[in-house]
Every structure is written in structure tokens, then in C-alpha cells.
Design a protein that fits this description.
Shape: rod-shaped
Helix content: over 70%
Number of helices: 2
Oligomer: single chain
Order of helices and strands: HH
Distance between the termini: 88 Å
Largest sheet: none
Strand content: under 5%
């Protein structure tokens, strides 16, 4: 009886190892795909935030250039508006 158990273990062990290895690589592939999607989404969000900050800074530079080049502008209002 014990010999039968050993034979069954010898036959089933490589099959089980193959199944576990396949599942591991399938899981790893899925996790990598999810991670890649999250990285793309994070880069997109960071790009949008950076673009908003850049737009605000460009607007401020335009106002500052107007203040410097035009002497008729109410300086205190423009500065407070910034």
C-alpha cells in the first residue's frame, strides 16, 4: 500500500509543480498588466496637475509683463489680483 502511495506521489508531483508554476506566471502577468495601467493613469494625473500649474504661472507672467511695460495700469489692483 505504501509503495502505491509513493508511485502516485512520484507521478502526481511533477504535474502539480507544473500547474503551480503556470498559475504563478499567469498571476505575475496579470499583476504586471494592472501595475502598468496604474502607472499610466498616475502619469496622466501628474501631467494634468503639472499643466494646470504651468497655465497659472503663464498667466501670472503675462500680468507681470503688462505691469512692467504699461505705466497706466493700476499697479495695486494687478498685484492684489495675482
Amino acid at each position: 500500500m505504501f509503495e502505491l502511495f509513493l508511485v502516485m506521489m512520484a507521478i502526481s508531483s511533477p504535474i502539480l509543480v507544473i500547474i503551480f508554476v503556470q498559475n504563478y506566471f499567469k498571476y505575475k502577468k496579470e499583476v504586471n498588466q494592472k501595475l502598468f495601467a496604474l502607472q499610466i493613469e498616475n502619469e496622466s494625473i501628474a501631467f494634468i496637475a503639472t499643466q494646470k500649474k504651468l497655465d497659472i504661472l503663464i498667466e501670472r507672467v503675462i500680468v507681470l509683463e503688462r505691469i512692467v511695460t504699461n505705466s497706466n495700469i493700476n499697479l495695486s489692483w494687478e498685484i492684489n489680483h495675482l
